[in-house]
Amino acid sequence: MLAMKIVVADDHPLFRVAVAQALRDVTGGEPPVEASSLRTLEEAVQAHADIDLVLLDLHMPGARGFSSLVFLRGERPEVPVIVISSNDHPRTIRRAQQFGASGFIPKSTPVERMLEAVRHVLEGGVWFPALAAEKSEDDAKLAAKLAQLTPQQMRVLMCMADGLLNKQIAYELGLAENTVKVHVTAILRKLECHSRTQAAVLVKALEPDPPPERETGPQPEE
Predict the structure, then answer these.
(1) Of 42, 96, 125, 196, which residue is least crowded by CB atoms under 10 Å?
(2) Do residues 21 and 116 share a domain?
């Protein structure tokens, strides 16, 4: 069995451990690379040139909705990404597909089914639950615009969305303030935005829809 290098990006350590144990038969003994935030995911991607697959949770520190997926598609377009999320809203699944994921696994999926999905994507396929949501033209346009940004410009955009000034962004990312200004100008041009506020609104559109409420049934009386 060939060793496979898989990155497991999730901010819950127990979930990462559980997934790592489940993946042993798939990875050929290669321990998964773990990431708990967008920053550590970026470090993992830069440190490992031989990544075969990324298992990605959308909700991690530093990430806004699908921003981590957009980052991965820009930084390592050759590496397939499977989104693993507790938010299995039909539109969330469809949007993950439109933003470049190769698969989507709800966290409620049984382990054997999850491994089946991982193997299928590693073999070059795609894996998505049955989709009830239609494709969105707005999402397609947004994905096309964001695809023009470099990884560094994506980082600057996320800081802009947090309301940071150029000086603060420079400090946060270790850049010269003039370099940040150049990035901001390029970002606004590529996104066809006239202001930082407009760009922040586009980032807000990366947030997934909330998961549907589950039927819990009547509660027993005390």
Answers:
(1) 125
(2) yes
Pairing relation of β-strands 53-56 and 6-9? parallel
- For residues 107 and 143, membership in a common domain is answered with no
User: Phi and psi at residue 128, in whole multiples of 5°?
Assistant: -135, 145
Q: Which of 8, 157, 171 is nearest to 81 (CA)?
A: 8
Beta strands (DSSP E) in 86-167 are 103-106
By the 8 A CB rule, do 35 and 41 touch?
A: yes
CA gyration radius, the chain: 18
Total count of domains within the chain: 2
pLDDT tens for residues 165-213?
A: 999 999 999 999 999 999 999 999 999 999 999 998 888 888 876 665 5
Query: In this structure, what CATH number is given to the domain that contains residue 62?
Result: 3.40.50.2300
The answer to whether the CB of 166 falls within 8 A of the CB of 184 is yes
Question: Distance of alpha carbon 52 from its chain centroid, rounded?
Answer: 16
Place of tokens 């800081």: 159
Tens-place pLDDT, residues 16-41: 988 888 888 787 778 899 999 988 99
Cβ atoms 70, 206 nearer than 8 A: yes
Q: State the pTM of this model.
A: 0.80
Whether 141 and 117 share a structural domain: no
Name residue 53's beta-bridge partners: 6
57 & 153 share domain: no
Side-chain half-sphere CA neighbours of 45 within 13 A: 26
